[in-house]
Amino acid sequence: MTTLAATRTRWRGTGFGTQVLVLTQRSLRALVSDPRMVVFSVLQPLIMLTLFSQIFASVANAPGFPQGVAYIDFLMPAILVNTAMQSSLQAGVGLVTDMKNGVLARFRSLPIRPGSVLLARSLSDLARTTAQLVLMLVFALAVFGFSPAGGLAGIAGALALSLAVSWGLGWVFLAIAAWLRNAELMQTVGFLAMFPLMFASSAYVPISGLPGWLQAVAEVNPLTYAVDAARAMALAHPVTGVVGALVTSGALAAVGWVLAVKGFRRPL
Amino acid sequence: MNDLMIEATGVGKAFGAQQALDGVSVAVPAGAVLGLLGHNGAGKTTLVNVLTTLLPPDRGRARVAGFDVVREAHQVRSRIGLTGQFAAVDEQLSGLDNLVLIARLLGATTREARGRAGELLELFDLADAAKRPSRTYSGGMRRRLDLAASLVGHPEVIFLDEPTTGLDPAGRLGLWEIVERLVDDGTAVLLTTQYLDEADRLADSITVLSQGRVVAAGTSAELKAQVGQRTVTVTLADVADVPKAAESLERAGLQPVAAANALTAPVTSSREIATVVRALDEVGLEATELALGEPTLDDVYLSLAHQPRAA
Lengths: 268, 311
Description:
Strand content of chain A: under 5%
Strand content of chain B: 25-35%
Helix content of chain A: over 70%
Largest sheet of chain A: none
Largest sheet of chain B: 6 strands, mixed
Oligomer: heterodimer
Distance between the termini of chain B: 33 Å
Number of strands of chain B: 14
Order of helices and strands of chain A: HHHHHHHHHHH
């Protein structure tokens, strides 16, 4: 029977680049075939955007708030960074899902490098996060009257920075996923870590408006720097902290990569 | 260079204090099937995991398709196919996309990958469902897709870890035929199973594992010879005739054991059926039923696999 093995044009494996490309396409294909994930992941930040822009609108009159800035213009860059952060958790959840799904068991018996599976996961999540953030920006511009002084260039800068943060943090969650291998636990850990980070920062009110002890926390919260940098770009204020945010993201990605590959190599 | 496609020597693997594999050796030449029998926890899957590079052994050495499973894992992986106990397919992708994905990862072009996927879908009777997401497949279809996935790269060695678990009888038969065809093409197969008829039907040689050790190895016939003898069972119409029949068989040199209206006696060859018939004839009795019993692999399995340790 020729169809089984007689046509022994054997394939012996392929390069790292092709592995990453094929695996990234695979994850994106699943995303396109079921776009509910993107739609629902946009809903939550949209709700936050709606509520916060109403609840905290009076903050714009508080002392310490930048003069002549609409609250939505102040809020939106923070929402971008936050959404990007929460989205990074999905990279880890996706990896755990693949483990449960059985497809990783298949990949492990193929001549492919663990790094390419992880990098593909990370890249497809970056694509998903980009779609999510762009969708949110469209809403903010069209519905909420978001029009920061930085214009399109400022918005693009804030978007790019948010994506960099999401990507770096995504590697941390990939590493956690590779070791924990439990989606529910991941979600809980992620939420516990991110919820306080979100509020104990400059995201929703200027730091000077926070109580003293919270100010202290916010000062050292890395999220504050990412939010400040994204906001400064959007509002065309003097930008500080971009390099810091990028270096931190890069460092997280590097550490995450090493730990994720190590954890991923352990038997299922 | 020898032609052994699987060669494991003294493989040991412990999980904590538990010795999952304790000095296991197996050898499988090209075009042969090794059946690995054992109950749950005997170490079958651990051995498969070691041989497929998924688990490094603590002790011993193993070569698959001529490459060391530890030092040359990549080469091993490009030459093997693995069908585990749980279907390793991407449930979000269609059957076709699953197979194309694997072919592409193995280095096929998109066109080659589609060609190969089409062949396998046809072969495994999945062509009609090719474009449906595999999460909508039945259990049997998913297992077939999984097996197809492990054949994409024309592997030289195939590992089937309890491949027919969860298949209906027709599905099992279909899988057996595919394994037989693979073997005809020169593929070496290692098959773990709890189904004795499966090992009997497919395997050229059988290794029985118990608590991480090889407790018996040989061909199906050798194992049967080791355990059981052939027996002749005579069923009589009337229970009252049993003592008389037993006496006549004893005179003929047999050692019958009575149970209800039947007598069973060990024999060394099928020619002794004639002896039985003559002996009964001499006392004027006739058997309503006369059966020659072959020892089954169940006998082998039960008598060997539950022994804690073979000497």
